[in-house]
Structure formats: C-alpha cells, structure tokens
Write a structure and sequence with these properties.
Elements lengths: L1 H18 L2 H11 L8 E2 L4 E2 L4 H7 L4 E10 L4 E7 L4 E11 L3 E7 L2 E4 L2 E2 L3 E2 L11 E4 L2 E4 L2 E2 L3 E3 L10 E4 L4 E3 L4 E8 L5 E13 L2
Antiparallel strand pairs: 1-2, 3-9, 3-17, 4-10, 4-16, 5-14, 5-15, 5-17, 6-12, 6-13, 6-16, 7-11, 8-10
Amino acid sequence: MPDQAFQILDGKLDKLIEQLDGTFARRVMSIIFDGESVANVDRSLLALSVMDEIHSQIHRGKLFTASYVFEGVADSANADILFTAPAGANVHMRHSCDVGGDAYLQLFKNVTASADGTAVPITNMNQVSVLTAGTLAYRTPTITDTGSALPQRYIAAGSAGHASGGQGLGFGETIFPAGQKHLIRATNKSGQARTIAINLHFYEVDVA
C-alpha cells in the first residue's frame, strides 16, 4: 500500500512540477514518505504534523506509569520504589516526587535486594491498548547494595512547621539497562514525618 500511494503521489507531483518549483515538491515527498508510513500534513498550513516522543509512545500503547503514596515517612527515613528492567529491553524513564517538606531524590542503578517488597501496579497510559509492560515495580524493598548512585536532587519544600510542599523532577529521561534492578529513593529531610509520592513514566526499547 505505501508503494502504491507513493506512485500515485509521485504522478501528481510530476504535474505540479511543470507549474511549481520542483525543488519544493520533491522536498515534500521526502518528508512524507519513509517507505513504510505516511505522515499527517496540515492542509491549511501545508505543514507536517508532529508530536513529541512521549505522546507518540502513548499512541502506540507503549508508555506505562506507576506511582505510590508513602504516608507518615519519618524524618531521615526513605521512601523506595524498586523496579526491574526486563531481560530484553532497556527502560527509558522519567520520574518525579511530590513531598510535603524538604527531601532528597536519588536514583540508583543495578542495585541488589534481598526482598523486592510489595508489587506496585503498572498502568498503560493508552487505555485502549492491550500491551503490558515487562518492567516490574515494588515498594519498600529490602536493599542490601545500592549499586551505582546517580546525581542526587534536593527538593526545597520547607521544614518543620514552615513546609509548603514541593516537587522534584528527574533530569529528563534516564535510560536503565535491561535485566537489572534499579531504585528510586526519596529521603525525608524536613524535620518531621511527611507524605511522599513517587511517580514514574516509562517505555521499553528492545536491546539490539
């Protein structure tokens, strides 16, 4: 079908070339076709319609989300979510943390756990899709080795009775290697117990 569509459009463009600048017409064809699919074009603007990668993954049914709200996290205590990347795919993840007071937010790669903890449900962001994630997520794991620590972030949300709450976002997208366990950790540093929510959004890319 794409080849037939290409031939039809190619014939029409040949006619346009007689009246218009052929350079523009050929450029339009090279943008629309990749040999397999046809991109959407805004007819009123004669512009290519595009979407960002995350939006595209949702449409494909490949963007997943998981989150958990930890209540009453003591000062200097941790809220942990452990996730296991599937054997055949790297995990492309964006994460965030909502907290009622000052906190540290940190990622750890290739950790070791003596117990994974309680499973955290993972949801497909495309509720029409039947695809499921290969990644598994858990809360309150028992970590025996934190592996490789990635850069730590400070969430300035206030302390003691002067806290107003805040949010910490990850550094864009982080790619975690296949077949390993990784950790998202938020540490309460506000001086009293707080509620902490850890949120993650991810898609999986098969290892070449």
